[in-house]
Write a structure and sequence with these properties.
CATH superfamily of the largest domain in chain A: L-amino peptidase D-ALA esterase/amidase
Largest interface: A-B, 61 and 61 residues
Order of helices and strands of chain A: EEEHEHEHHEEEHEEHEHHHEEEHEEH
CATH architecture of the largest domain in chain A: 4-Layer Sandwich
Distance between the termini of chain A: 20 Å
Helix content of chain A: 25-40%
Strand order of the largest sheet of chain A: 9-16-11-15-12-13-14
Number of strands of chain A: 16
Number of helices of chain A: 11
CATH topology of the largest domain in chain A: L-amino peptidase D-ALA esterase/amidase
Largest sheet of chain A: 7 strands, mixed
CATH class of the largest domain in chain A: Alpha Beta
Oligomer: homodimer
Radius of gyration of chain A: 22 Å
């Protein structure tokens, strides 16, 4: 079940990007792809952010090393069904082997390949299956395979996640197309689950790094399903430059569309969150610092009591107040706090609003998309994060994941 | 359903303490008590800790004021079914009215009464029902009513929680008896849900404050169900002195028994945790600081993915490692981390232990009481906290709480 999420619309090819996907045998069901290859033209720039989880997976370690090696990135090799995390030295060796297999077939150094894995933690990566699949995978590379790639990186996702936009800058058409996956173990921190966004705009490396940092903060770094930061999160932005149209982070129109693509991808992860029946936007306004605003929003978003009330469509504002009251923020003047559910004011000056009625609250709670807005009336900083409710199905999906 | 929790055993009266309980009409079911009165003899000392939630309830505010007033505490008035939280000025006035009703009947100043409420947040306290019940409640006061009091303070608790111990010091018998309630919204911080422990030992005020602080840290401040700190938490230690036996915090035997009473009461809250099917002890050893040890233990305890794996009896150690990896602690050397499930080593030096098998892990996971032990091999500090799994029933109980 998803919350207002449908299959991707038209996915425009990005000049300079070729993709392929196949079933290599990592997943049991042979009708489902589990291996994806992305290839970039030779002038491409690549920017990446990774999980901050200290137990990061082997592919995260190797992808960072390859990025730092000075070799241009030409390939991304992404498998689903196995995270290659908690696999020690063998996991690292397996990961390098798969990069080497691509490199040998394509006559590039192995450092030009970045590896990514997502799936079960702690199982050995079936490196032979992956290596055997690579020659035919390379042959299948084509510019129209974005949807197949989006499907090939799925794990507990119920729908593929992809967004595509085009804009015209100085008479030249520029395309931005991206895919991502993720449904549980979602609380990215400076990174996300797997996300790959490519554009044919021309963006130099240092500029691309800044662009990615800027859009990631308000998209993938502003979502949470369960507060659990994955060991394998990664988010990449690739600029092939093939459109010959230069842009920078100060190009408002391009950045606005780039931000739209990132936000829609990030929201699609929440809309497909494990067991989600509601899409919740939490807005915190007029905080003393943006850090405070984010901490407070996350405290509400992670409260199991708030999340179960949302699942029950119960306007239990007492639980939201209790979460606000325990948030680890520098100072809170409870007499100034205002709380809104959609447009309905629940609490003003720290007290139940006189005009509030359960009926008004219930009317908002019945909706699928719900905005919880907290105004601290203390400062000028704000934050917005997106999350889900906590349902029977979240428990079911995660209790039965390995069984 | 509870996890290894049975009805309380023998509850020894505490000299100098009288109790009474009745149904006043706050709860719908007239066969269930919802109002409890405790009375202390005139030389009693009382120490208290309260919730740190900034949206604390009216009774917490008033109880603190009355404690600070310099008047000796002679009565505790505790109602269940209504938290009197988020009720503004009216809530404070209602709270003071109930104290005044006791005071008028008993000819004491109202500051000698401490009020406590637990239940639904945001509903007006039915002060008339409470006041009407007080005269007969005072008449019912008796020293043998500990079990009735334990029942009268229950909300979503499925069993009353009470522990009693006696010891002989210098030939004099000293009794410690306590009751508590709590099942959800449990992550006390310097306080707990409602807990009242009384002894007839003679302990001066300043000494009693120190005793309470010491035992609360390793009991009620070391448990969590859902990470949600309540607006109404309070924990009191009362020393009537009627046994004429003086003790202090340096009296090892007394403190050991006091600690046992507090720990068993705290554990009983976890064993009756909302939807709990497992009782989990998380031990973190050889951390650089006790703060780090506690943070790490709580990160594991609050992870919905770890909790659902525990519910499923699935030895999914990858989720525990992922939680360790994202814990907000000062420094973590993942190559030194060891992880045990009961006596079974899962991870050594940050990697899966060679002798580990799924079968060994499953054998531990099938048990009802499970110890998760993390050794960081970095320092000398440790922490132990207690928690539950996350089950369908947790979601059910909290989704249907007000419906």
């Amino acid at each position: 079940m998803t919350v207002g999420l449908s299959a991707p619309g038209v996915l425009h090819p990005v000049k300079g990007v070729m993709l392929a996907s196949c079933h290599s045998g990592i997943k049991k069901d042979s009708t489902i792809d589990d291996l994806v290859l992305m290839q970039f033209s030779d002038e491409s720039s690549v920017a990446a952010v990774f999980t901050t989880n200290k137990f990061c997976a082997a592919p995260v370690t190797i992808a960072k090393q390859h990025l730092d090696s000075g070799h241009a990135t030409r390939y991304l090799l992404i498998n689903s069904g196995n995270a290659n995390a908690g696999t020690g030295v063998e996991g690292v060796e397996n990961c390098i082997s798969t990069c080497a297999a691509i490199a040998a077939e394509a006559s590039f150094p192995k450092q030009s390949v970045l590896p990514f894995s997502t799936g079960v933690i702690g199982a050995p990566l079936p490196v032979d299956k992956i290596s055997s699949a690579i020659p035919s995978l390379i042959k299948k590379l084509g510019e129209d395979n974005w949807l197949a790639a989006a499907k090939g990186i799925m794990t507990t996702d119920t729908l593929p996640k992809a967004v595509s936009r085009q804009l015209v800058i100085n008479g030249k058409k520029v395309t931005i197309t991206g895919i991502c996956k993720g449904s549980g173990m979602i609380k990215p921190d400076m990174a996300t689950m797997l996300a790959y966004v490519a554009t044919d705009a021309l963006i130099p490396q240092s500029e691309l790094d800044s662009c990615l940092k800027q859009v990631v903060n308000s998209s993938f770094n502003s979502i949470t399903v369960d507060g659990d930061t994955s060991t394998n999160d990664a988010c990449l932005l690739i600029a092939t430059g093939v459109s010959q149209q230069s842009v920078s982070r100060t190009h408002d129109e391009f950045m606005s569309v780039l931000n739209e693509v990132f936000s829609l991808l990030a929201q699609s992860i929440i809309r497909d969150g494990e067991g989600a029946t509601k899409f919740i936007e939490i807005q915190v306004e007029q905080a003393l610092s943006s850090q405070d605003a984010r901490e407070l929003a996350y405290t509400i978003a992670h409260s199991p009591l708030v999340k179960t009330a949302l699942f029950a469509s119960d306007a239990n504002w007492g639980r939201i107040l209790a979460a606000i009251g325990r948030a680890p923020i520098s100072s809170l003047d409870i007499d100034k706090v205002a709380l809104f559910l959609g447009d309905v004011c629940l609490v003003k000056n720290g007290l139940p609003d006189e005009d509030y009625s359960e009926q008004k609250g219930q009317a908002v709670m019945q909706q699928q998309d719900i905005i919880i807005r907290v105004n601290l009336n203390q400062g000028e900083e704000s934050a917005t994060i997106w999350t889900t409710d906590l349902s029977y199905d979240y428990v079911k999906i995660n209790a039965e994941y390995r069984s």
